[in-house]
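Hi there. Long-time user, first ticket. I'm pasting a complex I've been working with (about 430 residues overall). I'd like to know whether the download I got is complete or cut off, because the file seemed smaller than I expected. Thanks.
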Amino acid sequence: MDEREISQAVIQRLPRYYRFLGDLLDNNVERISSSDLSKRMNVTASQIRQDLNNFGGFGQQGYGYNVKYLYTEIGKILGLDESHNFVIVGAGNLGQALANYAAFETSGFVLKGIFDVNPKLKDISIRGIKIHMMDELKDFIRDNNIEIAVLTVPKENAGEVAELLSDTDIKGIWNFAHIDLKLPDSIIVENVHLADSLMRLSYKIGHYAKGDLQK
Amino acid sequence: MDEREISQAVIQRLPRYYRFLGDLLDNNVERISSSDLSKRMNVTASQIRQDLNNFGGFGQQGYGYNVKYLYTEIGKILGLDESHNFVIVGAGNLGQALANYAAFETSGFVLKGIFDVNPKLKDISIRGIKIHMMDELKDFIRDNNIEIAVLTVPKENAGEVAELLSDTDIKGIWNFAHIDLKLPDSIIVENVHLADSLMRLSYKIGHYAKGDLQK
DNA sequence: TAGATTGTTAATCGATTAACAATC
DNA sequence: TAGATTGTTAATCGATTAACAATC
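Hi, the file is complete. Here it is re-exported in full:
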């Protein structure tokens, strides 16, 4: 039922291909060779062809790749051809910022509800989406066919929320809390550890800056 | 002057070590072996020892690693023993959320100013930090010893801001705009492409969920 | 057809894991 | 001293790059 095993490195790169192809599409580019794309993306043409061939032969010898077709196919692989209902758990600054992030909708992610522990926020709406209290979370997930929970609670509370979510049919968690969640294998976790990213920047500034070493 | 070449894979993992060691420290754990740490972190002990030995011998045979010492040393490697002045460029939802993200300060990142194009925001303050107009950016960076610019402007404007920053002594850019910036090699870019991350979650939900494949 | 470019196999490179001598 | 555990070398594994036959 599934393709053969795809390496994490390939999955990591897939959204970037999708973005570049989207840009090409916006610029009305009809076709592109792996060689041209490799120059734009600053990777090897060989890698592009290898990566794509994990999922099928999308190109044509002597022609290259049709941009629109490849864009659509990668979109399907990424699951962007279907819509995904999600909730935001944690209505702090970051949660609210994400709630306002309109780009979601265009790629099929539909915000259905926002949850928080703070009773002061109860029934307030962000972009027309109501904030609920945590005790409603489990029922809400069941009743609204929610696939994804965006976790923007403080580190201290992330564990208990994960516990709560373990007992639902949620499929994935987009985790912004700075902690490694413990969850059943059936729930996918994608971490966005902002602090880690900032530390890497700090590391690189200290070690590469001023051309000490190559990029 | 610099250590020998460190692979990106190692740099990627460094902040996670730092976090786990911080947690151990909070729990008053005095020493830990690579083997114990490997179980907690779900990596091999061999990898931990290899990774650390890129930077020096921090352990002791028969004893393991002193948690506090190792934590401090990794902090130094990451540049967290010094403070870093930064500005936020783009005072939208995400920019404001990051401005309110207090965790920065504890690790030495000091917000000095916020910049935006919207004249309505002029001179408004967030957490006591004033919002300036873009035309002040270059002088502000020079006068306030700014190392890092956090880029939270829309994709469409990211290019011109990058252009502006190219002509400053900024050392690094923490880029939240969904675009690959073109900058001189002397400026480090660390990307946080939220959309990419969400797409990876979507991919994994579609391909791994319900235990179809291993995690 | 000739030229271009893919899909795919083979070669290389680098990262991870295993093993173990050194040593606390 | 004996036991534990590192630091480091060697072996393995996997990912990237190169090469080229297939084919549009």
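A couple of notes from our side: The CA atoms of residues 32 and 177 of chain B lie 40 Å apart. Residues 211-215 of chain B have pLDDT under 50 and may be disordered.
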